[in-house]
Design brief:
Layout (H helix, E strand, L loop, with lengths): L1 E4 L2 E7 L6 H11 L9 E4 L6 E5 L13 H20 L2 E2 L8 E3 L5 E3 L6 E2 L2 H18 L6 H16 L4 H12 L9 H6 L2 H23 L14 H4 L13
Antiparallel strand pairs: 1-2, 2-4, 3-4, 5-8, 6-7
């Protein structure tokens, strides 16, 4: 349920059939944490029926509104990073599932549903990694290229096997989310692989130009007088001698 209180929207969880203990446990965990990847606790009622109020994040969780394809891998990386931060604070989420991931207005994924949170022991970490693997399998598919899909499947397998911790998973997904530089095509990239050829192609025109300038500035070496530069007399046209005017 969503209510407006003092000008802001709040998400309200009410006591369910399992009694007040789960909501009180979630309030205890959230009250000791402040993280942009977790819902923000406002308060919890003191008397039954218990109500837990948090700052409203978004209208739907990932099980109903998963992230779109362009941001999907980056969003998964952000969730893994939040779980890794919890582990470093000696806490586990306990129930990583698409229904416990919300999308904020800025497309930031936010975790909720921390009633099963516990200490970051081996069992708790393994449970969170299993939940992250499920996210990769449920959310990571779709419009990604086959190579990306295969990489995500491999990461999920490694999570379940315990060969990848949450921080390493976050780094791997963050790297995978970064766009690859465009492949260079054409002649010049091919020459890049042959450094000597490239240098030769650049140096050759310079050498030819230097030789041309050198030849222009050097005196001729031929013995043929016709090859010699014209003298001053030859550069000035000789005056034309007219015959004397005849008398009538």
């Amino acid at each position: 349920m969503v209510v407006r209180l003092h000008g802001r929207l709040l998400a309200v969880k009410r006591q369910g059939p399992n009694g007040p203990d789960r909501l009180r446990r979630e309030a205890e965990v959230l009250g000791g944490l402040s993280h942009p990847g977790l819902v923000q606790l406002v308060d919890v009622s003191a008397t039954e029926p218990i109500e837990l109020r948090t700052v409203f994040v978004g209208p739907a969780s990932w099980d109903r509104m998963p992230p779109s394809a362009p941001e999907r891998v980056a969003a998964l990386a952000a969730v893994a990073a939040t779980v890794a931060d919890l582990h470093e604070l000696d806490t586990t989420h306990g129930a990583v599932h698409p229904s416990h991931v919300l999308t904020a207005d800025d497309d930031r994924p936010v975790l909720c549903g921390l009633a099963d949170a516990g200490p970051a022991d081996d069992d708790g970490r393994a449970r969170d990694l299993d939940g992250l693997a499920g996210l990769l399998e449920d959310i990571g598919g779709g419009a990604e290229p086959a190579s990306v899909r295969a990489r995500i499947d491999d990461l999920a397998t490694r999570c379940r096997a315990g060969s990848l911790d949450a921080r390493s998973l976050a780094r791997e997904l963050d790297h995978l989310a970064r766009p690859s530089p465009p492949a260079r095509t054409g002649v010049l990239p091919a020459l890049d692989a042959r450094r000597g050829t490239r240098v030769a192609l650049v140096a050759a025109p310079l050498l030819v130009g230097w030789l041309a300038l050198h030849q222009m500035s050097s005196p001729p070496t031929s013995d043929d007088p016709s090859d010699a530069p014209p003298g001053p007399a030859e550069e000035i046209a000789s005056p034309t001698t007219l015959p004397p005017a005849s008398r009538a």
